[in-house]
Please model this.
Amino acid sequence: MDNNAKIKQVFCQALGIQPEQVTDDLTYNTIEQWDSTAHMILVAELEDSFDVMLDTDDIIDMSTVGKAKEILAKYDIQF
Amino acid sequence: MIKVSHSFQGPVITGFQVTLRPVAQNDLSQLRDWRNSDTVRQQMLSTDFISEEQQHAWFKKIQRDDSQQHWVVEYKGQAIGATNIKARFHGDSVNTAKTLEPGLYIGHPDYQGNVIAFAPTLALYDYCFAHLSVESFFAVVKAENKAALKYNQQLGYQVINQSDLIDLRLQKEGFERHTELLRRLLSRSPRKGQ
Model:
């Protein structure tokens, strides 16, 4: 599975949403499913799936799917 | 974990990546702009615009009113919002009150609807439970303000009365239990190089 498919799967599992909802523009707090509780689950699942440890600034900055990809790219995860 | 230092105007609280410092005269213009913005004003119980004169009278009052304390929220050295506590019952000071009513808004548009909005509350409530006499927080939100209701429930608030306004109560045990993961995520070390 490539990293784009992998991140889509993580968002679907963590937020309980459909794959077609996972676009780069999808933004924290704009859908009911992506609240702070889900955000915390999302962070944990991204860390597990990509074997990284995000810092607090990343967790705060990760406000969209696109931003999540940018942040993971800093950890040498390519999309 | 929070750090508390003391300034002439009151306690300065640092933790969870933010600093809460007492409101100063030179914050007033920025705070009024945020408070009068549609995004913030419409969530307030009073949606009236605040004039410069009203705000100066308010600021003068809070200087000598020990029943309330107001802070500016800073993230990375930049003001992003404001928070406050008020004694729930007349005659109490914030230092001795058993019940406090909190207030918060994030005025900076870059941080509205961001998970950082939990940081000032974690820092403030930790300070209140550890350094003041408070046993519970009491919050009132408009029934249509679903975001504020959800925000408070994620902190562990329980609904105790529901009409056009919703009354919520929070005690220390519930707060700590509900915010365990959130406080862990917001307490990680800052990015290298900062």
